[in-house]
Amino acid sequence: MKAQINTEKLPCHIGIIMDGNGRWAKEHGKPRIFGHRNGVTAVRETTEAAAELGVEYLTLYAFSTENWNRPKLEVGALMRLLVETLAKEVNTLHKNNIRLKAIGDLSKLPDSTRKALLEGIEHTKANTRMTLVLALNYSGKWDLAQAAQRLGQQVKDGQINPEDISQEAVANALSTSGMPDPELLIRTSGEARISNFLLWQIAYTELYFTPVFWPDFRKDDLYTAILDYQNRERRFGKISEQVIS
Prior knowledge:
Undecaprenyl pyrophosphate synthetase; alpha/beta; 44% helix; 245 residues; 8 helices
């Protein structure tokens, strides 16, 4: 399946909503955190596969602002798992020349989680092969609100005028500033919704929904999604004849 992929037409940026950990655990008669732990393998495999192909950015929706509403035990276990995983995986990322980045309101994360995350970001900041972006305490609405606040402050300070607030200015004020918008967004577990993820950035993103639960997601599942993407016609408001010409 990997051999079928046209590496000249890879999506530069892939986003993934990693869904189905809890249902996967339930099917196996285990607590929800068991699903999250097994989801780490999917993260590792997907990251390796994307880097091997030559994808430049991979953004994983790891924890949304709404996820704080989950049971406290599960949230606490998730945060500890993140620290544990970062400690294990950062050196591997570094050896593979992969840069770690994070988007979201990181100030609300537990101190130990934020410390491990920032240390990983610092350790890998000079790497150039691929950027792995973790969306933590992130939501698209939060991102748009903080961008509006930032632009509003610039107007208040006299740095810009209201009429200077263009689409480019908004994009530059988002947490993804400097990154290309995703060309492909994958959601696992069979759910077909965006769940408040990269709302501005996915205006022209191709959406791919798979019934595979995240802990079962492997390299071939990523290849399948990319092949599906490569068989689509991306018109950006034009008609087919214009794209072909």
